[in-house]
Amino acid sequence: MVRGWVLPLLIVVAGVAAAAGLHADRNDGGAVVVLLAFVAFAAVNSPLIFPKPAGALEAQRRSEEDGRPVVYWRPGCHYYRRLRFRLGRDARRAHWVDIWRDPAGAAVVRSFAEGNETVPTVVLTDGRGYVNPDPEWVRERL
């Protein structure tokens, strides 16, 4: 869980430093805008906005029951964020596994990504896995 907060924390620290520099130059309005922008960017990269992850075994069980795909991800991944935001509300229709929290999920990803932990990896109910698929392709399978 702690690893998921490192990037957002660093973003906030950078925002505070940038805002402090603008405040020192007596640009309080700019400091507020910069700080808010950095805080918003940190929120986008935080575990708060990601779907609640399930364990790999639980996600696979649910996928078999309802036919929805399983998406393996990790916080801070640019490609994962692209997929998540392009899916929008449809993202709720998939099962999400955070590979940093679940070693079994990381093993599933390595099995499809030639030993690498490349995310997002989407596994369909038929057992086929796709590494970093196009978001529109994933939307069609939801």
UniProtKB/TrEMBL annotation:
It comes from the Bacteria. The chain crosses the membrane at residues 29-50. The keyword Membrane applies. Coiled coil: none annotated. This is Glutaredoxin domain-containing protein. Keywords: Membrane, Signal, Transmembrane, Transmembrane helix. SUPFAM superfamilies: Thioredoxin-like. Residues 1-19 form the signal peptide. InterPro entries: Thioredoxin-like_sf.
